[in-house]
Amino acid sequence: MTALDQRLPAVAAGREFLRKSFPDHWSFLLGELALYSLLVLVLTGVWLTFFFHPDMTELRYAGSYAPLRGTMTTEAYASVLHITFDVRGGLLLRQAHHWASLVFVAAIGVHLLRIFLTGAFRRPRELNWTVGVTLFLLALLEGFCGYSLPDDLLSGTGLRTAQGIVLSVPIVGTYLSFLLFGGQFPGHEIVSRLYVTHVLVVPGLLLALVAVHLTYVVVHKHTQWARPGRTNRNVIGKPLVPRYTAKSAGLFLIVAGVLAAMAALFQINPVWDFGPYRADHVSLDSQPDWYVGYLEGALRLMPAAQTDVAGHTVAWDVFLPGVVLPAVLFLVLYSYPFFERWLAGPGPEQHLCDRPRDRPVRTALGAAAVSAYAVLLLAGGQDVLAYVFALPVELITRALRVALFAVPFVVFHATRRACLGLQAADRRRLLTGETTGEVRRTAGGGYEEAHTLLPGEEVCRILVRDTPRPRTAGAEAWRWLRRHRLRNALSRWYFGRRVELPATAGQRRQVAYARAAPGEGPEEKAAKAVSEEETP
Q1: Residue 123 burial class via C-beta count within 10 angstroms: exposed 0-12, middle 13-18, buried 19 and up
Q2: 323 with 298: CB under 8 angstroms?
Q3: In the Cβ-directed half-sphere of 441, how many Cα atoms lie within 13 Å?
Q4: Region Disordered: start and end of each range (predicted)?
Q5: Alpha-carbon span 185 to 178, nearest angstrom
Q6: Which runs of E-coded beta strand occur in 17-98?
Q7: Exposure pattern of 24-48 as b/e (b: 16+ CB <10 Å)?
Q8: What pLDDT, on a 0 to 100 scale, did the predictor assign at position 15?
Q9: pLDDT value, residue 533
Q10: What's the rounded Cα separation, in Å, for the pair 26 and 280?
Q11: Per residue in 430-465, pLDDT tens?
């Protein structure tokens, strides 16, 4: 082995990689859920390609599903029925593929939310955050392409909606529609083009970006929660081989088993009930998959509005919710790490996770965004809600329009207050300790609840936190142009409110030592932190 190391240095590098540590916490498994769902997607998708025919040629169905015999269908739709009813295990694998796609997108979304709330996007992981957001975008595109392939009435309705969104793009919308569909809707090219995109283009990009994403995780090392012994300069966890690999392999088997059970027990996308797509038919109670439900809801809530400019009609009721809203959403996602860095100013590398309560504004923004998404998702089925609750659909639409602005506002302020309240509760626990459940009688004849000191691990978890100060540079009174006034005002709003935690000089020294970034002198930083606290 020594001779091999001398001639092939990669062996030593590989040995070091196999011993790399990975922290052990349930929230870190969300990314693995997405990875293993993608693996199930690839395996089931490869099997389905052997039987699916991406052809728009119409024929008279003569398969084994009796209710549709004699109906004119496309070759694509007929092949899906063949997979479902004639291929052994076809329905099971079709449904496993569909369920895996939903879990894949959901796992990426929740994983992104976890990274956002814990601040794991900060330096040096800004680029990896953009890779993750791109993965999320590609996952949405991959799901939509696969959802549209069967050419059934439900997916055809969604494809028609997508074509309407493309047409709403000013000036070039018609040209884009003809380019994508190869002529008038629905044309004879769209399914074959979606098929190539679904099985070749997007999966290739997804797998490549997953490799880049995991490479960045290895290079930058994994984030971890603050605990005794864990600092900004180390990683404490299980080695990749054999312990973490064994646990991860077990998680893959669990994910595959759960998806197989869901495919066997819960029906999804019964295309034989929907029938083949026809432009003059509409599917009642048609709802898209949840990850594009917000787009459907935005289209339904937008009031009718259009403008004629120089012979061109701009359909604002489709263009704003269908094009501008998703573009703004992903622009905010891509730019958020750089926006927070702009507010906080230059800072060292951050490898310890934030507790969501310690960043009230960031957590409140995330909660408000989730609540806005929930309102739009409800709006995507406002006709179903009207039928179930026997209410006028106009009333539900108006109520959801108000809720789209009121609910995020309320959720933001409630979440920020809750985070500050949790910080205050941590302060009380540090001062008074943990309650024991015992009641003691005082010397004066009264009664009080007994308390015990918090464990050292809990004290470390509470005290070790990143507390950037609001920026003030660039807006001094002597400057002629206070060009940083807006940035500083936003920084005060973002970082200004928090509950100060009591700590002894020794605890402050330990916190500064844990938070010292790579390349910084931890002892010097700890001494400086203590001196700053003692200076009046």
Answers
A1: middle
A2: no
A3: 3
A4: 512-536
A5: 8
A6: 21-22, 58-60, 72-74
A7: eeebbbbbbbbbbbbbbbbebbebb
A8: 67
A9: 47
A10: 49
A11: 998 888 778 888 788 888 888 888 898 999 999 999
Cβ neighbours of residue 331 under 8 Å, at least 6 residues apart?
none
Q: Is it true that the peptide bond before 124 is cis, omega within 30 degrees of 0?
A: yes
pLDDT digits (tens, 9 = 90+) for 232-284: 999 998 888 888 889 999 999 999 999 999 999 999 999 999 999 988 887 66
For residue 4, CA distances in Å to 14, 16, 419 come to 13, 15, 56
| Six-digit token string for 271 | 């295309």
Report the SS3 class of residue 416.
helix
Q: Which two tokens stand for residue 414?
A: 């409630």
Helices (H) and strands (E) in the chain, counts: 22, 8
Q: What are the tokens at 17?
A: 């990689």
- Residues 170 and 152: their CA atoms lie apart, in Å, by 30
Query: CA 82, CA 150: separation in Å to the nearest integer?
Result: 11
Amino acid at 146: G
Amino acid at 511: V
Query: Which residues, including other chains, have CB under 8 Å from residue 407's CB and lie 6 or more apart?
Result: 371, 372, 374, 375
The sign of the torsion formed by the CA atoms of 401, 402, 405, 408 equals: negative
Distance in angstroms (rounded) separating the CA atoms of residues 410 and 418 = 12
21 DSSP β-pair partners: 239
Coil/strand/helix, residue 136: helix
Asked if the bond preceding 186 is cis, omega within 30° of 0, the reply is: yes
Contact 343, 494 (CB under 8 A): yes
Chain mean pLDDT for the chain:
89
CA angle 531, 535, 536 (to 5 degrees): 160
Residue in the block written with tokens 């594009």: 292
Identify the pLDDT of residue 2: 61
Whole-number pLDDT of residue 410:
98
Q: Which of 346, 359, 372 is nearest to 418 (CA)?
A: 359
pLDDT value for 535: 44
Phi first, then psi: what are they for 475, rounded to 5°?
A: -130, 30
Percent of the chain with pLDDT over 90: 68
Q: How far is CA 515 from the centre of its chain?
A: 27
Provide the pLDDT for residue 452: 87
pLDDT of residue 536: 40
Q: Are 355 and 201 spatial neighbours (Cβ–Cβ below 8 Å)? A: no
Q: What is the DSSP letter of 357?
A: G
State the residue for tokens 């500083």: 488
**The three-state (H, E, C) secondary structure of 243-309, written as one string:** HHHHHHHHHHHHHHHHHHHHHHHCCCCCHHHHCECCCCCCCCCCCCCHHHHHHHHHHHHCCCCEEEE
Given a cut of 50, the residues of the chain with pLDDT beneath it are: 527, 530-536
Q: Which residues of 109-121 are buried (b: 16+ CB within 10 A; e: fewer)?
A: bebbebbbbbbbb
**Around 113, how many Cα atoms within 13 Å sit in the side-chain half-sphere?**
15
In the structure encoding, which two tokens stand for residue 97, read together?
């593929």
